[in-house]
Specification:
single chain, eight-stranded antiparallel beta barrel, elongated, disordered N terminus, alpha+beta
Length: 239
């Protein structure tokens, strides 16, 4: 019995020793593995030279130069989205492209001129048109500022406005009932996007997006953007 016990003990001890050696080797292998050291894995990953970021938009729509100032005012509107492609975004200076721009612009107003009044409910969408290279606008960034070197291409507005009241159809106001809004594409220079330090949010000051003579009206838009998505993408050369 003592012999058997000793043999069993020796066998058990050997397995423990082998187990200890095996576990130690596995531990050493894990320590040396890139999976155990995220920095080693990151070092092997190629840097992302081009990042595409989508920003959710909110906006202020300012109307000016209307008849007797009856429709002048600032109206909160949105939502919308703009997609910006950054080249070498980790750098302090570089280039960027606006890939898409869309802003939904619903708002309501009540207006009075002389002895007439009207209620208007407007619902339209403004969009930019990508060029043959897939860009709506191009620019460059320095620190927190993204300055657009080209105007927003093919900026157009489509929608409808409903007018109710005695002012409808007078002094250039929309006629009573539903009216189509259609502003033909034009080149609209945007102000710079002013970003927070982390480039997650930005604002843009008011810019004139359309002028009309009938009815007489100047429309301006200011923007606020917040990052909602980003992805590493392949650069798209275009000649």
């Amino acid at each position: 019995m003592r012999y058997g016990g000793g043999a069993m003990a020796a066998s058990f001890h050997a397995r423990c020793v082998k187990g200890t050696i095996y576990v130690g080797a596995l531990g050493a292998a894990l320590v040396a593995s890139p999976l155990a050291d995220p920095r080693a894995a990151q070092a092997d990953e190629p840097a992302c030279d081009t990042v595409e970021v989508e920003y959710a938009l909110s906006a202020n729509l300012k109307l000016a130069d209307t008849f007797m100032g009856a429709g002048d005012g600032v109206y909160r509107t949105g939502p919308g989205r703009v997609v910006v492609r950054w080249s070498h975004p980790e750098q302090e200076h570089g280039v960027a492209q606006m890939i898409s721009y869309e802003l939904h612009q619903p708002f309501n107003m009540e207006t009075t001129a002389l002895f007439w009044s009207a209620k208007l409910a407007s619902d339209s969408t403004a969009q930019g048109t990508p060029d043959r290279c897939g860009m709506v606008a191009s620019g460059s960034f320095a620190g927190r500022r993204l300055t657009w070197g080209s105007a927003v291409n093919g900026y157009h507005i489509d929608g409808n406005v409903r007018c109710e009241g005695s002012l409808c159809g007078r002094f250039g106001a929309p006629v009573s009932g539903d009216n189509v809004i259609r502003i033909a594409p034009s080149q609209v220079p945007f102000k710079p996007f002013e970003f927070a330090a982390d480039r997650k949010t930005f604002t843009m000051d008011y810019v004139v997006v359309s002028r009309a003579d009938s009815p007489k009206q100047t429309t301006l838009v200011s923007l606020a953007g917040r990052e909602v998505r980003r992805a590493c993408v392949a650069a798209r050369p275009c000649s």
